[in-house]
Amino acid sequence: MKKTVLITGASSGFGLLLANSLHKQGFDVIGTSREPEKYAGKVPFKLLRLDISDDKSISAFADELFRNIKQLDVLVNNAGYMVTGLAEETPVELGRQQFETNFWGTVKVTNALLPRLRAQKRGQIITVSSIVGLIGPPNLSYYTASKHAVQGYFKSLRFELDQFNIQVSMVEPVWFKTNLAHNAVSQSNGRIADYDAYRKQANAATQKGIDGAEAPDAVVNTITKLIATKKPKFSNPVGKMTGMILFLQNYAPKIFEGSILKSVKTV
Ligand SMILES: NC(=O)c1ccc[n+]([C@@H]2O[C@H](COP(=O)([O-])OP(=O)(O)OC[C@H]3O[C@@H](n4cnc5c(N)ncnc54)[C@H](OP(=O)(O)O)[C@@H]3O)[C@@H](O)[C@H]2O)c1
């Protein structure tokens, strides 16, 4: 039987690429966007309206989804965005909004769909976190915190869902070419002169990461393999340097921290 896969944030980036690829392979794909009308007739899969930061939108979406499907095999929690900037200069409100989408939105969408997955006694939840859910680079404190939160939430939840035969996995990409950087949000409370030199270097380091981004196919391939695996791994870092980054963080923390400090050196 065809698997039904729901992908949040399927209008752009990883979500769009994954939805197109799974549709081509014969899966029943349902994607979401905050503005599905913008993509009407432009994507080959069904696109439902969903703003994961809005409770009413989640509840209307869940009703519509269950009118459209008989079973749900895979939920891919992919929707998200990135707040950038130095922590002390960034308004806390911007951080709160980051959590409303990346953390609370992901949790609430999962909660809205879990009763169906439990009733089926099978299913799969794949959440697109980030390598910054495992490490903490500067200039991305709120984004990093939101991805650590999501990582911790599912790390715990997976044990509770094992009894229902619901598999839980995380995908932790490094930098990949999508619209994430273009859609990033940055706002300042007011510049603090003490950070002037550091800010310049930190922005340059973030930009270097964005400029060196890889083609997003590796992320799509990783998620596709997870869908095909009976007992998938929980943590799935993706990207050329992830093995080295995580090895250094875990086994040579001084070298790891030194390399991050060096990447934003001001003198
Ligand atoms: N690209 C990278 O280097 C990278 C690395 C690590 C992790 N990630 C993660 O990958 C995921 C996908 O991002 P991307 O890189 O593909 O970026 P993208 O091209 O900007 O796509 C983001 C998607 O999320 C949706 N979205 C954003 N806010 C939403 C909200 N409040 N409610 C519902 N949908 C929302 C957007 O849909 P609409 O605007 O149509 O609603 C869009 O489809 C994110 O969770 C991101 O944090 C990306």
Keywords:
single chain, 267 residues, alpha/beta, Rossmann fold, seven-stranded parallel sheet, 8 helices, 47% helix, 13% strand, globular, binds NADP nicotinamide-adenine-dinucleotide phosphate
Task: Explain what this protein looks like in three dimensions.
It is a single chain. The chain is of the alpha/beta class. The protein has a single domain (4-195, 215-241), classed as Rossmann fold (3-Layer(aba) Sandwich), CATH 3.40.50. Helices cover 47% and strands 13% of the residues. The protein contains eight helices and seven strands. The chain has helices at residues 13-24, 55-68, 92-120, 141-161, 196-211, 217-228, 242-251, 253-263, and strands at 4-7, 28-33, 46-49, 74-77, 123-128, 166-173, 235-238. A seven-stranded parallel β-sheet has the order 3-2-1-4-5-6-7, with helices on both faces. Helix 2 (55-68) runs parallel beside helix 3 (92-120) and helix 3 packs parallel to helix 4 (141-161). The radius of gyration is 19 Å and the shape is globular. The protein binds NADP nicotinamide-adenine-dinucleotide phosphate.
